[in-house]
Amino acid sequence: MKQQIKTRYAIVALIVVCLLAPISALAENDLPSIVLAGLNEYKVKGPEAAVKAWIKGSAFETSIEAMSQANTFRQVEAMYGAYIGYQVIKVKEISKTSKLAYVSIDYEKGPLFSSFLSYKSGEKWLLASFTFNMKPEVILPNNFF
Fold first, then answer.
1. pTM of this structure
2. Count: domains in the chain
3. Do both 19 and 66 map to the same domain?
4. Which residues lie across from 115 on neighbouring strands?
């Protein structure tokens, strides 16, 4: 009897995982390429490379303020440790040419929450704005909770 219950729980758990896995994969596929490029650069080359990738081609490509965001990542790394990876929380299409992506940037000891507003100019995505904070309530919309 106990074995049957365990087997049923295992089957239910497997079904739940199979149903939810495509949802997270779909969110990652919806992530604009410009956001993904910066996240990949961060993993390989560090914060400056990530910020340069994110602002490439944007209105603030030459902005010193935008490049100062690399310091934010250094401060987070000093507190949370090394960058591990990221998780897509949600990607919301605002219009055919704009998307808002919420991403958890994960470190050894905690997450940094982020939002990226991307704009599609012709065939390529540009970053219109990005925001980072250790507090999810600062980044995520009020109706998220």
1. 0.78
2. 2
3. no
4. 102, 131
**Side chain identity, residue 14:** L
Show Cβ contacts of residue 56 under 8 Å, excluding neighbours closer than 6 positions. 34, 37
Domain extent, residue 20, equals: 1-30
pLDDT tens for the chain, residues 1 to 145: 555 544 444 333 333 333 344 434 445 568 999 999 999 999 999 999 999 999 999 998 888 888 888 999 999 999 999 999 999 999 999 999 999 999 999 999 999 999 999 999 999 999 999 999 999 999 999 888 7
Give the pLDDT of residue 135.
96
If asked whether residues 38 and 65 sit together in one domain, one would say yes
CA gap 138, 82 in Å, rounded: 23
Say how far apart CA 15 and CA 60 lie, in whole Å: 46
Residues 11 and 50 in one domain: no
**To the nearest 10°, the Cα dihedral for 36, 37, 43, 44?**
160
In the β-sheet with 83-95, what is the strand arrangement from edge to edge?
83-95, 98-107, 111-121, 124-133
Both tokens assigned to 30? 């919806």
